[in-house]
Write a structure and sequence with these properties.
With 286 residues, the chain is an alpha/beta fold. 31% of the residues lie in helices and 31% in strands. It folds into three domains: 88 residues, Elongation Factor Tu (Ef-tu), domain 3 (Beta Barrel); 120 residues, Rossmann fold; 46 residues, no CATH class. It is built from nine helices and 17 strands. The strands form four sheets. It has a seven-stranded mixed β-sheet, sandwiched between helices. A five-stranded antiparallel β-sheet has the order 5-6-2-1-7. The longest helix is centred in the C-terminal third of the chain and has 25 residues. The radius of gyration is 19 Å and the shape is globular. The model has no long low-confidence stretch (mean pLDDT 88).
């Protein structure tokens, strides 16, 4: 069992967890993830490690409550325990001194972009970060991103804070200004990552994306996380999760991620109904 040391909401349906996992905290590198299972009846879900502290033996996870399991996790509090936390998994981010790097985070993807931006800074790069969200109240890790950035930008779709527009527009603006960019890492919704790839493609800027396909065992055995990269099948859990953005078949990725949409919706509705029933029973007893 893995104890939750701290749990707090950062924004709507987005929660930060500090979890006691000393062996993972000691070995984890930027770009890697864990697979968790809340209880013996729960599904296995992958979550990128946002940060770790080997001294306290804790890892940081930032979770957006979208499906049944992530919403169930976001109902947990400090002192609660998670049954399984397996990791670190995946290939670490490739870190070297490229020159000028841009880390782009869309929504909760910022939590994944952050550790790689930290590593890029430590490697001696000039680090630019672009932190995107739909609105001001959904901006994540702004202070943390600024603290390790030579230049930091926040964009909001609705213009309620920072640059009014998408992360792609801010990146294009930097390119149009003549900014020398040697490397881009983009993490967020699939359409956003695909759009970033199209922005950088004409300029031949090395661009990586961290993919989020359906994943089960995290060892390459099940094949659930299959992605097509440069016409070849790869497994995100063991070959990734980061891949060359200009070679990823994003349409295939989106189609595969929709395969179980109906069952995922049904599972979420069933979970909500169970929660409503439990609440009614509690009210009756009181």
């Amino acid at each position: 069992m893995y104890k939750i040391i701290e749990a707090r909401f950062l924004g709507e349906n987005i929660k930060k967890f500090e979890i006691e996992a000393p062996k993972i905290a000691k070995r984890r590198k930027a770009g890697q993830f864990v697979i968790i299972r809340l209880d013996e009846h729960g599904e296995r879900i992958p979550l990128t490690i946002a940060d770790s502290n080997p001294e306290t033996g804790t890892i940081t996870l930032i979770v957006q409550g979208v499906g049944k399991t992530t919403q169930q996790l976001n109902m947990m509090e400090s002192g609660d325990e998670i049954m399984d936390v397996v990791g670190p998994l995946g290939v670490p981010s490739h870190i070297e001194k490229f020159g000028t790097t841009v880390s782009v985070g869309g929504g909760v993807g910022t939590a994944i972009a952050y550790p790689t931006a930290v590593a890029m800074k430590e490697a001696g790069n000039y680090v630019i970060t672009i932190n995107g969200a739909r609105s001001k109240d959904l901006v994540l890790l702004e202070d943390e991103m600024k603290s390790i950035s030579d230049e930091a930008y926040v964009t909001t779709d609705d213009g309620s804070y920072g640059f009014h527009g998408f992360v792609t527009q801010k990146l294009q603006e930097l390119i149009d200004q003549g900014k020398q960019i040697d490397f881009v890492l983009a993490i967020g919704p699939i359409p956003m990552m695909r759009a970033i790839a199209e922005v950088t493609r004409p300029y031949n800027i090395k661009t990586m994306v961290s993919l989020n396909p359906i994943m089960v065992d995290g060892t390459g055995m099940c094949g659930g996380c299959r992605v097509v990269v440069d016409g070849v099948s790869k497994f995100a859990c063991v070959d990734g999760p980061e891949f060359d953005a200009h070679k990823v078949d994003f349409k295939n990725l989106m189609d595969r991620n929709k395969m179980y949409a109906k069952k995922e919706h049904e599972s979420l509705e069933h979970f909500h109904e169970e929660c409503r029933l439990e609440k009614k029973i509690k009210e009756i007893k009181e």
